[in-house]
Amino acid sequence: MLRLEKRPNPSKFWNYATPVTAVLLTMVAGGILFMLLGKNPFEAIKLIFWDPLFSEQFASYSRPQLLVKAGPLILIAVGLSIGFRAGIWNIGAEGQYIIGALCAAGVALAFYPSESWLVFPLMIVAGAFGGWLWAMIPAILKTRFNTNEILVSLLLVYVAEKLLAAAATGFMRNPDGAGFPGSRNLNQYPAAANHELFANTGLHWGGVAAFIAVLFTYILLQRHILGYHVQLAGQAPRAARFAGVAPARLVVLCLGLSGAFAGLAGMFEVAGPARQITIDFNAGYGFTAIIVAFLGRLHPVGIVLAGLLLALTYIGGELAQFMLNLPAAAIQVFQGMLLFFLLALDVLSNYRIRLGVSPRASEAV
Amino acid sequence: MKRRELLATSAAALGLAATLGSTARAQSPLRVGFIYLGPPGDFGWTYAHDQARLTAQEHFGDTVETFFVENVPEGPDSERIMTQMALSGADMIFATSFGYGPSVNAVAQRFPDVAFEHATGYLQEAPNVSLYNSRFYQGRAVIGHIAGRMTETNKVGYIASFPIPEVIRGINAAYIHAKKANPDVEFSIVWVYSWFDPAQEAAAAEALIEQGCDIMMQHTDSTAPLTVAQDAGVLGFGQASDMTQFAPDAHLTAIIDNWAPYYMHRIQEKLDGTWEAGNVWQGLPEGEVEFAPFSDKIPADVQEETNALIESMRNREYHPFTGPLNRQDGTPWLAEGETADDGTLLGMNFYVEGISGEIPS
Amino acid sequence: MDFSSINPVTLIAMLMVAATPILLAAIGELVVEKAGVLNLGVEGMMITGAVSGFAVAVNTGSPLFGMLAAILAGAAVSFIFAVLTQILMANQVASGLALTLFGLGFSALMGQSYTGIVPPRTPKLDFGPLSDLPVVGRIIFGHDILVYVSILLVAAVWYWLNYTRSGRILRAVGENHDSAHALGYQVKKVRILAIMFGGACAGLGGAYLSLVRVPQWTEGMTAGAGWIALALVVFASWKPWRALLGAYLFGGITVLQLNLQAAGVRIPAEYLAMSPYIITILVLVVMSSNRGRRSLSAPGSLGRSFHAAG
Questions:
Q1: ipTM, interface predicted TM-score of the complex
Q2: β-strands A351-355, A2-6: how paired?
Q3: DSSP state of C129
Q4: In chain A, which among 326-345 make CB contacts under 8 A with chain C?
Q5: Cα separation of B177 and B173, whole Å?
Q6: Is residue B277 part of a domain?
């Protein structure tokens, strides 16, 4: 019988080898799936993993798009990772993302058509503030009334979605838009637009923000006393209390930080790639970011890689859809398999597989 | 060769140093891409567009190659997908939802040789962006008439999605014609804030029936309200496609979106090299709005009137929004004999007189 | 404003139906979480159940077989999660989300040939003249079988968790897996079984939507019901009867707000549409601030992986 034995320290080798193995396994399993659907598996896999990066036809466009797609995912995910490490469960980043975007767009539209350079920085502040504020609701309910933050943050996503719809069809509707829903196009409002910083790099201020957030989080977790508190609270809540960690402060801090990051992501998205507030402005980044955070093992660098990998499967998946007439559902299944393999193989970096049964661990088969 | 120029210009526009491996194929088929908001299997909005695509594909055979991406959210994802379609050599792209507007225009500016067709939008910021829309309100007028004639409780239930002009226009058109057929008719409107949420739609239908409505109208995509109507023994109308089989006793008729004539027409023009950007709003006369077969439940005289109404709109004698009509607050909108202009209709965000309740905003 | 036109009896009858799919899924997830496992894949399991139940019901002509298939399919897809989290020690939050993603895609793929098809109908139970009784006739004797099943299931889970040995073992495993292990309980086996029970319930909840409530198959048709079920477990503070209360509260406000709209009550529709979520939060806040903190707390080992030291 096989059994698992916990490694004292995660294996360095498998830390790097498991993601690669998982991707390879997904290619095999996905290839079989595509074959069953009557498509050429090699072509499909090439379209998903290779063409967005290296094909002459697509790569020069797709490669920068990888940054555009991964940017918000990474920005939200690093924020979430801090709380997750401390055992604080913000499931509602999607809502914070929406409110951040609404606040930022609100500021921009309030000053329309100002040409002041102050508009954009103000929007950044408003975006972060909006996300922070929305995250403060579960934080305060948790600390004051002991209300579970999973429930509150999750349900507030739906409230935010209704607010978004009300904004797009009502109070933020473009007055020059002939009655159609949706706000003004912020890309056509120079003071508020978040354009690419360098042409065809896909890098806009949101990417810069994501980079800073990753750095910030890295330093926070590695070097700062707060990072130590976060780790302690997550691993040994009681010990943390003795060590002087105030749980309430930690909740407010972690939720606030992740909310602010999500709000920022919403702000850069609405002013940049999304251009405007619409009914369906949110595209699930807040939920996908939770996966990204864990795929990245809650480590800032891991999150960057996980975000890029997931973005690649989105972009490549779109190519595969229209080049091969693959249904979107097949791509979704493919992504699901990729996640399964990544999560499953993680076991190799934390455990050793041994033969034989240890008497005290009969269920750890 | 057009295709090659297209790639060259688009690459240049993007500032790419892409080397174009493919040489122009003389007889390569016209590549026509579609982006869909939902899945083709939604049996509603996207289903109708996909049926039209399939009809066009069959019609043109090997001269045209159609392809699509489904479940495309409005915003950056749609922009990226359209760009990649253009890079892959698409000659024509149909963007089948209102919210793709800003993205369509942005991509169109980068790919001046690709023909863009945008459904139900209003933005034309590039010379190669065409707009097309369908006068569904003509269909709503027809089912409004049937509802007005057939309701016994004088209460019609209306399940609405989002408070946008398209939906409000439909409510007004239905109400005006129900009222004409039956001066005592009242509309109860429930907003569900979703295009597709079967459980919510079912609950909304139940609530309306509970309030005494005996005819259901819906501007949402699922068949749930019809099934509820069937079980409760009241009547209803299908949405976007014939839904008779889901509620054989309740289903009176359905407004069917038929985009095929327009798609075939425009693809043909692109093939012929005569395609030009336009802005059309077609309906009954062009065969873009159709009806599912009438149920036997509709009495013969009502069927006759209804057919006459359809005919009058089909040969453009009658406009569903013809004065005298007032706005909800009583202020005059259209004088006797005056018809609504398309601009007002497209941006309609007010109820006509007689409808109770407020449009959420 | 006309509140009087809203009949409380029919309102209750309607909310029971509206709440049933989320209640089924929630009671399953409650057992999973009681065992110390957080499975965020409820939505994925529900929709898998919805499509499997639909397909089997259509092919066999029997809604009952459809529901059985949904139970099996829900359990089967949850087994992926069980393997990942219990055997391969993967993170539960991420695995659950991956399961949702996978389930949504898988069901859409499987269901492609089932759109636009009418499934065989599930009849309401026939109680004869009982259903004509005033008030109780509609509330108690006017439903289809799954409404009763869901209530019985709540009662059964409550009894089982509190009054049976195996129920106590499950709770012990969820409270503190190390002590449970030390006492000789098979932590992983208990958890895997709990996860599959949760999958079965979620699958049945999905089939309720596709076979009874709507009935139709369209991809994504659960439209977030699984997430609400997850929230309800927390709302219920991991107590079965409170899950019923929560589901009926949430379903009730949803139905009530639609009824208020239909009755023409002058409250803006967008605020009414938000109300089920906001009121659920508020009620939980009130409940959590009034009670002793202990009774509210989550199972001690919730979300933590268990590995027996060798």
A1: 0.91
A2: antiparallel
A3: G
A4: 327-337, 339-340, 343-345
A5: 6
A6: no
Question: How close is the nearest chain A Cα to the Cα of B269, in Å?
Answer: 23
Residues B145 and B100 in one domain: no
Q: For the residues A60-76, what does the mean pLDDT come to?
A: 93
* CB contact at 8 A, B100 and A276: no
CB pairs under 8 A between A and B: 130
Distance of CA C126 to the CA centre of its chain: 25
Single-letter code of the amino acid located at B27: Q
Instruction: Average the pLDDT over each of A9-18, B250-259, C273-282 and give the range with the smallest value.
Output: A9-18
Per CB-CB distance under 8 Å, the chain C contacts of B360 are 268-270
Radius of gyration of chain A (CA): 22
The number of residues in chain C equals 310
Q: Domain extents for chain C?
A: 3-126+139-296
Q: What is the band of A355 on the pLDDT scale with cuts at 50, 70, 90?
A: confident
pLDDT in tens, C186-234: 999 999 999 999 999 999 999 999 999 888 898 889 988 999 999 999 8
CA dihedral (C56, C61, C67, C71) in degrees, to 10, reads -30
Domain that holds residue B315: 136-256+291-346
Among the partner-chain residues A61, A180, A283, the one whose CB lies closest to the CB of B165 is: A180
CB contact under 8 A, C224 and A158: yes
- Confidence check: pLDDT of B120 > 60: yes
B153 and B237 part of one domain: yes
pLDDT tens sequence across A187-212: 888 888 888 888 777 788 999 999 99
- CB distance C234–A4 less than 8 Å? no
A159: nearest CA in chain B? B193
The residues, any chain, with a CB within 8 Å of residue C288's CB and separated by 6 or more, are: A145, A146, A147, A148, C237, C296
Nearest CB among C5, C112, C255 relative to B211 is that of: C5
Kindly state whether residues B16 and B102 are assigned to the same domain: yes
Cβ separation of A155 and C88 shorter than 8 Å?
A: no
B38 vs A67: CA distance, rounded Å:
26
Point out the residue among A169, A179, A321 whose CB comes nearest to the CB of B162: A169
pLDDT tens digits, B333-343: 999 999 999 98
Split into its structural domains, chain B has a count of: 2
Residue ranges of A 131-170 with Cβ closer than 8 A to chain B: 162, 165-166, 169-170
Rounded to the nearest 10 degrees, the angle between the axes of helix C8-34 and helix C145-163 is 40
Please name the chains neighbouring A, where neighbouring means 3+ C-beta pairs under 8 angstroms. B, C
**CB distance B122–A323 less than 8 Å?**
no
**CATH hierarchy code of domain A40-325:** 1.10.3470
CA distances C23 to A230, A290, B41, C213, Å, are 35, 26, 28, 14
The fold adopted by the segment(s) C3-126+139-296 is ABC transporter involved in vitamin B12 uptake, BtuC (1.10.3470)
* 3-state SS, residue C106: helix
How confident is the model over C133-158, as a mean pLDDT? 88
For residue B64, give the CATH number of its domain: 3.40.50.2300
Tell me the residue type at A244: G
Q: Which helix (H) or strand (E) holds B235?
A: strand B235-240
CB within 8 Å: C296 and A360: no
